[in-house]
Amino acid sequence: MSSNWQADSVxxxxxxxxxxxxxxxxxxxxRLVAGKLTSxxxxxxxxxxxxxxxxxxxxxxxxxxFLAHFNNDGSPYTLAEGAPGLTLVGCxxxxxxxxxxxxxxxxxxIFWEGYVTDLRGCIPLEVRTSAASxxxxxxxxxxxxxxxxx
Length: 150
Description:
five-stranded antiparallel beta sheet, Immunoglobulin-like, four-stranded antiparallel beta sheet, single chain, 9 strands
């Protein structure tokens, strides 16, 4: 990762959505707009020793889903393939190895997570560290490095 990965990422409690910071100011009240079905992937990190659940907010009406696997045969994805939420479990806490650059995010477990959506603009997600915790709301662009305008 680049040395500025944190500045270009969205942080929510123990979770980082790496390189997913919107290019413009996001509004949590922005109307979600439907378009062509697309799939993509993003790097999501969680602090070692932590667990969190990430879900799309109800306003997405099931039109943003996390993929449990990648179709290696090139077949298109469908919304039915996805799941409404994602549970992240960080590796056990251990000392960082020697010679690991800070840009490699020591102390984090990183996942490459696919998603499928037909929404455009900003996608509101929630991160919870337990069923009883208040959700942390984040806004991500529908495509990595994208803007939140429809």
